[in-house]
Write a structure and sequence with these properties.
By secondary structure, the protein is mainly beta. It contains four helices and 20 strands.
Length: about 270
């Protein structure tokens, strides 16, 4: 199943996304929020609406997480491009929900930063309460679906501060979307690509994760309870680079779609 969140009149709504005659359309409204389904999206009731082309809808970030949990340096080449060794266990940090940005929204460059970078990533939406997952337990029931994430980072502040809260946490520094889908398989490998003004900057596959998704979910759940709707951002391939005002940055994940945002000065 594939769904989005969009503005319909004065209200935000969740909508079912289907391919109709070669184009993606929002075909029905979801009566309940997907994160309230306990992972059983097939039983979420829907109601009729006049279909809208996904490309023409006023899309919102398709997640409303209590927290955004991110994995750092989960590709060897990305760790190496900044002179770091590959971590021996998942490197975890948080972004605040206030950093969320809708598809098509404007990434605002922080005035106090001299370098703001793009980081295209696969995002995972949590389906149900997840705590202390056992080593032999299947993690698939805890996954509601997957989406595109841009983990925008004030690189100079990240180096200056040592810990990453400020560098990662500015408003607009977490674009997400355009949809959430359960129709991809990160274990089999999906391509993650970032383009700036049409030029490919990053290109990688989830097959290259240092820590596979099941390892990441189990690790996080040992010290933090993941709640329905929480977002996990799984790490970025090599090729991160600076953004300037006027840039258009696109994060695409195979089987999901393209998350497109313009960059402006604060």
């Amino acid at each position: 199943m594939k769904y989005c969140r969009f503005q319909l009149g004065s209200r935000p709504q969740y909508g079912l996304v289907e391919t109709v005659t070669g184009r993606e359309e929002i075909t029905r409204l979801l009566v309940n929020a997907p994160e309230d389904s306990n992972g059983d999206m097939e039983d979420v009731p829907t109601k009729r609406m006049e279909p809208v082309a996904l490309a023409e809808a006023a899309l919102l970030a398709p997640v409303r997480p209590s927290k955004i949990v991110c994995v750092g340096r989960n590709y060897r080449e990305h760790a190496a491009e900044f002179g770091h060794d590959a971590p021996i266990e998942p490197l975890i940090f948080l972004k605040p929900p206030s950093a969320l940005l809708s598809p098509g929204g404007e990434i605002r460059l922080a005035k106090i930063s001299e370098r703001v970078d793009h980081e295209g990533e696969l995002g995972v939406v949590v389906a149900r309460t997840c705590h202390k997952v056992r080593p032999d337990e299947d993690v698939h029931p805890y996954v509601l679906g997957y989406t595109c994430v841009n983990d925008v980072t004030a690189r100079d502040l990240q180096k200056k501060d040592g810990q990453w809260t400020r560098a990662k946490g500015f408003d607009t520094f977490c674009p997400v979307g355009p949809v959430v889908t359960d129709e991809v398989d990160p274990w089999a490998g999906v391509l993650v690509e970032t383009r700036v003004n049409g030029e490919v900057r990053q290109h990688g596959s989830t097959r290259d994760f240092i820590f596979a998704l099941d390892v990441v979910i189990r690790h996080i759940s040992q010290f933090m309870t993941l709640l329905p709707g929480d977002l996990i951002s799984t790490g970025t391939p090599a090729g991160v680079g600076p953004l300037v005002a006027g840039d258009v940055v696109e994060v695409s994940v195979e089987g999901i779609g393209v998350l497109r945002n313009q960059v402006v000065d604060e």
